[in-house]
Amino acid sequence: MKLLSRFIPSSGIGYVPKSITIHAVLLAYTVIALFPIVVVVINAFKERRAIFRDPLGLPDSSSFTLVGFEQVLLRSDFGLYSWNSLIVTIVAVGLVLLLGAMAAWALTEYKFKGNLLITFLFAMGIMIPIRLGTVSILSLMVNLNLVNTLTALVLVYIAQGLPLAVYILSEFVRTIPKEPHGSRTL
């Protein structure tokens, strides 16, 4: 009863609090966002004909199958692909954070000639999609003999993530008090 009294005030019948409306909108968005994932998971356990016959229906005894999982796990290098994805993700995120933190610290704490230009270039990196440079990136990777390597993926992911990381980390560095920084030099 106490929980309901927080949301429904005694004065004003029919009053819908702002938090209930916000939570209803968020819940609706969550359902909309998760619906395609649920459909994919449900259809992963059905045979192909059953998927086209009733894509939203649950699998029954006649349509239930694990053939898709068998093909992925036994007939492909799924373990290798997962391992490669894990390596690329860890290395790319680690380097984006390391390089982004160093660049953010330098651009925020030190004023030098070209500081504004470098900040502007990082801002342009956020605004211009990396997809526009796909042909140039591919030709660069061919010239560097990096085609079909994990290194090429890591480099592209770093180029894609670094501008936003520098922007976010610059805002964080600005919130660090200056007093401890100045006291270290004494």
TrEMBL record:
Compartmental location: Cell membrane
Main location: membrane
PROSITE patterns: ABC_TM1
InterPro entries (UniProt xref): BP-dep_ABC_trans_perm (IPR050901), MetI-like (IPR000515), MetI-like_sf (IPR035906)
Coiled-coil ranges per UniProt: none
Segments crossing the lipid bilayer: 20-45, 86-108, 120-144, 150-169
Span of domain ABC transmembrane type-1: 82-186
Membrane topology of the entry: Multi-pass membrane protein
Keyword annotations from UniProtKB, A to Z: Cell membrane, Membrane, Transmembrane, Transmembrane helix, Transport
PANTHER family on file: DIACETYLCHITOBIOSE UPTAKE SYSTEM PERMEASE PROTEIN NGCG, MALTOSE TRANSPORT SYSTEM PERMEASE-RELATED
Similarity section: Belongs to the binding-protein-dependent transport system permease family. MalFG subfamily.
Name the UniProt record assigns to this protein: ABC transmembrane type-1 domain-containing protein
